[in-house]
Amino acid sequence: MSDLCKRLQNVGEAGVYRLNCAPDDLRKSAAECGYVVFEANLADARGKGEVLAELARVIAAPDWFGHNWDALADALGDLSWKAAPGYVLVLHGEATGEEMLNDILDATVSFWKLQDKPFWVFFA
Q: pLDDT tier at 66 (50, 70, 90 boundaries)?
């Protein structure tokens, strides 16, 4: 087991970070852990609607997804359609002016910690 995989399994360290390794290394280590990796390109997203659409696309959100912040929080706190021992969300670019997204990501990490399941977010 790689060192990165061991680190990804540490629920206590899960959080929102800047990616400081090669994306391929992260993908390999997450796969080694059996985690689902979601990768979103927010660099071209203009406003809330496009950010939500991109995130809904990458997590393969179910039909009930309402394309609002509450729906995103609900979907990230469910993920039953992508059951896994842990999750990694890689966000390429940043959603300028979308502070609510950061709050939702922090809350999602906290929720999954309570489930004893790591949820990692990396800004690449």
A: very high
Domain with 78, as residue range(s), is 3-123
Cβ proximity of 123 and 19 under 8 Å: yes
* Count of domains observed in the chain: 1
CA-to-CA distance for 37 and 17, rounded, in angstroms? Answer: 15
Residues 6 or more apart whose Cβ sits within 8 Å of residue 23: 90, 124
Q: Of the candidates 50, 46, 58, which has an alpha carbon nearest to the alpha carbon of residue 91?
A: 58
Predicted TM-score (pTM) of this structure:
0.95
Angle between helices 69-76 and 47-58 (to 10 degrees): 20
For residues 15 and 67, the answer to whether their CB atoms sit within 8 Å is no
